[in-house]
Structures are given as structure tokens and as C-alpha cells.
Design brief:
The structure is a homodimer.
Chain A (H helix, E strand, L loop, with lengths): L5 H12 L3 E5 L8 H11 L3 H19 L5 E4 L2 H4 L2 H17 L3 E8 L3 H12 L3 E2 L2 E2 L6 E4 L9 H10 L2 E7 L6 H4 L2 E2 L2 E2 H13 L12 E5 L4 H10 L5 E3 L23 E5 L1 H4 L9 H18 L2
Parallel strand pairs in A: 1-2, 1-12, 2-3, 3-6, 6-7, 7-10, 10-11, 11-12
Antiparallel strand pairs in A: 4-5, 8-9
Helix pairs in contact in A: 2-3, 3-5, 3-12, 6-7
Amino acid sequence: MAKNMFSQKLNKAILEKNSRLCVGLDPRLELLPKTILNAAIKKHGQTNQAAADAITTFNKQVLDTVVDLACCVKPQIAFYEQFGAEGIQSFWDTVKYAKSLDLVVIADIKRGDIGSTAQGYAHAYLGGNKLFNKKVESDIDSITINPFLGEDTLEPFVSVAKQEQKGLFVLVKTSNPGSKDLQDLKIDNQSISMRVAQMINHQAESLPLDEYGYHSLGAVIGATYPKSAQQFRKVLPQSIFLVPGIGAQGGDPSLLKHFFNKDKLGAIVNSSRGITFTFKPNEKNYLTDIRKSALETRDLINHNL
Amino acid sequence: MAKNMFSQKLNKAILEKNSRLCVGLDPRLELLPKTILNAAIKKHGQTNQAAADAITTFNKQVLDTVVDLACCVKPQIAFYEQFGAEGIQSFWDTVKYAKSLDLVVIADIKRGDIGSTAQGYAHAYLGGNKLFNKKVESDIDSITINPFLGEDTLEPFVSVAKQEQKGLFVLVKTSNPGSKDLQDLKIDNQSISMRVAQMINHQAESLPLDEYGYHSLGAVIGATYPKSAQQFRKVLPQSIFLVPGIGAQGGDPSLLKHFFNKDKLGAIVNSSRGITFTFKPNEKNYLTDIRKSALETRDLINHNL
């Protein structure tokens, strides 16, 4: 039993905190508290550095606020890549701070590429590379990946994840309406998404199980598709589902039970804006709002297991 | 006629240089010239900063060497993301230097995500965002994107690209063997890749054509699949194809004509390692080797139009 493997860490956090809530960290400059923004601009002018500093400051406050309520956190890297190298530094500073609070970190990067490029991405975010002669470690516990290029492009990710005891969430059925365009197409009565689920099962054959019966090769399945979730649950009983799409995107919380196993494990439910940006930029007590939203969302999920 | 639109710029470069060669910039530390690596380590120790500096120095030399032989260059961002914020700075420094040489730059990022996240990626690499009150410009001319999440996730990219006169290359049929797993699956005798080609056509309806008859919404089609290329050429006569996979991956140069239109336009052929890493790390005249490889590859492509 690998005590340090991703699924073990995540399941332990879920049970200890009684939380299946993943707090998404998708910072938007225009929604940040004005006090934080103004301080950063005063220090660095209207630059990428100011944006990055403001984001890091806000994220640290959010992390302190939700640390006992979230089983994991998920920075979405697009919102950091917008601010160049400074934005990426903010991403890594956020990851490091989350790790210092012992939070499980999922980097939402949705990468996918062939051969050595896929390996490059895996090393970049999961570690295990050598920088000159030193082995590089990563504070990230798991990443999201895109399967469109085929199973041979999942392998480098699985290989690095296995070696580093990290996790992966493969996009299976995404939460947006357009996910029907390709993912729902059926061949011999089986959808493309189901084919991806089978790839996951195939790749997971070589992976160890944690003490709860799960491995670290998970699936992204939108909260907006609870009926599909039931089918994927049957095919992937040992995978953890990362479930985005409640709140603004319209996923119905009362149907979340379709994403979980009977052990009340097997899924984590993400909320980003619904937790971190429920306040007005001029509001002073925004952390009270954030904590309240996190608490309510955690309880809403637990109520619907 | 938009003189500054991506396809116009690229087609002009192709005709002026008589080159359809895209030089890929996929730096690998272990293959860099020892002189460059040692100088960077001496200055910065065995750090990400040393790796990033060595990569930037090497890339600038490569760009100076191939500037008249390549119609465009294509940094693959995974190889930069491995070195954290410093690596991303090297990526942007490389892009900036390429632009200073008036080279067309395609960032190979293969991003794909929903709604505002897709828009975030588009702004990050194609510009058009506002940083506080200033509009941000990007030196990148075009990016690669992944269509797995559906047509509604292409729209934010198309919208930003149109506004900024930038280009996009959508993954249609990738060069790896595993591209058969999902991309070749057929529904009503039509492959997933062909569905993506139709999405491109649909999205391109609102895009302007350049004076050569092309728009800026291209497709990635692996050199390893020349028969498929003929079919895609028929369906997408006004798209430019980005063609990876000659050389190490086994694409046959003598079949490249299937990727082009009769006007000898409509495709660019990428080579990365086959141009930038044909030398041994201890070799002193590596730039001579790089120039020779670029020249030969450019001519090989032109010979097979």
C-alpha cells in the first residue's frame, strides 16, 4: 500500500475533513478586492508583476480561509498564464502555499501532446525530471489531461504519475453544452467519452490501489451530466471523479449522488467563482463571505451523497 | 483585405522566402551545446534560471541562423514550462526575438478549455486583454488548440483571433500512431477528425480571406497521414495546414504534395529536432549543421510540392 499516493492522500483528506469540496482558484483581476489590487499597483505600477502579486496575496487569504473546509484546491492555470512569467510565478507560489497548509493540490492544466512533449508536460507539473543532476520535485499532487490525441499520449503522463505517486484526471465528459459535439458521438452504441473511460481502465491496470480501493487515475465528468455519471461510475468504480459545473454552469446539486460510490467516496466537486468571488470588490469582509460559501457548498455536497 | 492578418503574413513569408519550412524550437537541456550550458551554469548555478538562459541563448542563435530559410518558427511550450517561471520568460524572450527578426511565430500550446477559461488562454497568447487599463499586445501570430471539448470551446479562441488578426491551428489528425484511437473513429462513415474539419469550416464562415484566398483558421494534420490529408484538403481548401511528423516520426517527404493546394500554398511543414539538434553537444560548428539541415529540409519540401 503506497501511503503517499495521490488517491490515498485525497481520500484521507476527504474523510478527515468530511469534505468533498474542491475549491477552484481562478483569479480574475476585475473581481479581486480593491484593497489588494490598489496595494499591488502602488508597489509595481499597472504591470504583470502587480497582477501576479495581487493574485498571490488573494489566493493565500482564500487558502487560509478554506483550509479546513476543502479536501483539495484547484488552480486553473489559464488565469495565471495571462500574466506571463510573473503569472506563472504566482501559480507556483500559490501551489507552494497550499502545500505548506497540507492541502491536496490539483493543477487544472488540461494538457495533451505526443511522446516526449507529453513527458515534458508531465515532468513540468508532476516532477521527476532532472534539472542538470538534481531530481526535481513538484508540490502539485495531480493534474488534468486531455485524451484527444489517443492512448499513447496518456502513457507518458501515467508513467511519470506512477513513478512520482501523483494523480491524473482525464477529461471524459466536460461540463459545457458543446461537449456533445465530439464526446457524445456514438460508435457501436458507445460514446467517445465511454471509449476514453475504457482507456482509463486499461491504463489503470498497472496502478496500485489505496487502502480505500481507489487508484490515482481519475476522470473529469461535468456535474451537468448526472445520467452519464451513473454509467461512468459503473465502468470506473475505482476512479475518483473530478466534478466541475455546479453553480453558474447549472449542475443540479441534488443529483450529485450519481457521481459517488456507496462508500460516499469516488468524487470531488469543484466550485470556483461560487466560492471565491461571491463578494463585491469594495466589500471589506470578503473573507467572511468566502468562508460562508465554502461551508455551505461543502454541506450541500454532503447532503446529496 | 486585412494586410496584417495571420494568413496574409504567413503566405507572404512563404512566397518571399520560397519556404514552407516551419522550424520547431523544442529545446532539450541534454542536447544543447556544452559551451552555452556551461556558461549559463557558471552564471546561475544548476538552476531553472541557468536552464532558461541557456535555452534563450541557443534559440537566438538558431533564429539568426534560419531566419531566411524558415517561413515561420514554432516554439513548443512544454519544453519551456518545465523550467517554471524562468522557462516561461525564456519562451516569451524567444518569441520577442523571433518577432524582432520579422519571423512569423506559431506557439504550439494545444490549449483547450471552456468559456472564460478558453478566453483566458486566447488572451494569454494572442493578446487583446486589458491589463488594468492598458490593452495587451502579443508577439505571437498563431497558436495550436485542441477541439475535444467541442465547438463552443473554439469560439472564444476564434473571437479573440479575429479581433487581433491572429491565427489558430486546430488539431484535426495528429501525427502519432495513437491518433487512431479517437480521431479515426467513424460515425455514419465520417471520422471524428472530419467532424473537427467541419467545425473549422463552420467557424471560418465569419473570417476574412487574405489576398491569396486563405483564412487564418488552420488545421494540424500529421505528415504521417498523407491519404487523410487529401480528404481534408478537399474539405478545407482555404485553411493552412500545419504539418508535423516528417523525419523521426516517419512522415514520407515524397508524399507532402497531398497536403498542399495546386497554388503550392496551404501548408507549412514543421521540423524540430531534425533541424535544431543534428549535432553532438561538444561540436563547435553546430550552427553550420543547423543551417545545412534547414536548407536541405526547405528544399526537400519544395521538391515535393
